[in-house]
Amino acid sequence: MTVDQVRTVPAAPSTRTRLTRVLLGRDAAITALLVAVVLVASLTVDNFSTATTWYFLFLDVFPILLIALPMTLLVIAAQIDLSVASMLGLSSVLVGALYENGWPLAVAALVALVVGAVGGALNGFLVTVVGLPSLAVTIGTLALFRGLAVGILGTRAVTGFPSGAQDLVSAHFAGTGIPVVMALFVVLALAFGVVLHATPTGRLVYAAGLNAEAARFAGGRVGRLTFWLFVASGVMSALAGVYWTLRYGSARGDNAVGLELSVVAAVLVGGVSIFGGRGALPGVVVGVLLIGALRSALRLADVSSDVINVVTGVLLIATVVGPGLVARARGAARRPGTRPSAGAPG
């Protein structure tokens, strides 16, 4: 790449620009849609606005929120990790198998987190050192981690975990429907948000998504960044697996099958570009809550799971395709009498 080519690469948006987009742009529209869904559901769906409904909604979306934190940074950096649900299942199985063999639960959970870090490091090594595309790598490790999980326990489940630990993940703040575990998410979200939106590391994440080669030419250590993002994804997936095991009181090899699709959908609905270089963490959090609230309302309205999946899919397509159509319309409006060509980018 020549110096002239590097000069044509768009710079990563500043923190102020990103916050402006959060407050006035697409994230504001997503927030407005969440408010509209909540208001309509509260008025038309019995029991939706109760503390109990919101309590279970938060418990349901908690693992998605955890995994979405590193996934947001990965997608902004033009990478993806589809092995997250399999790592969740593997960590759940490890907790169950170790506890069943007499290990203290805390030690078993710690081992699961270490295995999550190792699995993430494997993904990062194959992507950054071997040079394989993250989509292909994580599809492979998706099958690998799930195969290990099923191989360890087979078709059986481990149950009988300490009631104190199960009560802890299910506890809620007195007088509210907010689970105590949401406090952990708030702390982690603040940490990831500061890194992404207020540090040089975050600026490198955006720069890598816009043009990784230019970011390297400018001195950014894109490979090291990508490696540690995959490690973070593995650890957060393993943490979600520990939570999953204690919340449902069961360690199984098929825990959370398909959850990676919910995570990716939430990230994209939250305004992160699948092509990298654009997005913000607050929008992703709202996206997770939007999908969770919509699915909860439809379940309470006795809508079948197939229809719920269709509605979720339509929402995802609309949020991915919509911005491109709006950009085309704005471009056409700025050039009266012209039409965007069929091959013009959206």
UniProtKB/TrEMBL annotation:
Q: What is this protein called?
A: Autoinducer 2 import system permease protein LsrD
Major subcellular location class? membrane
Membrane topology is: Multi-pass membrane protein
Keywords, sorted A to Z: Cell inner membrane, Cell membrane, Membrane, Transmembrane, Transmembrane helix, Transport
MF GO annotations = transmembrane transporter activity
Q: Which species expresses this protein natively?
A: Cellulomonas chitinilytica
Residue intervals passing through the bilayer: 23-42, 54-75, 82-99, 105-127, 134-153, 173-196, 225-244, 256-276, 283-301, 307-327
Q: Name where it's found.
A: Cell membrane
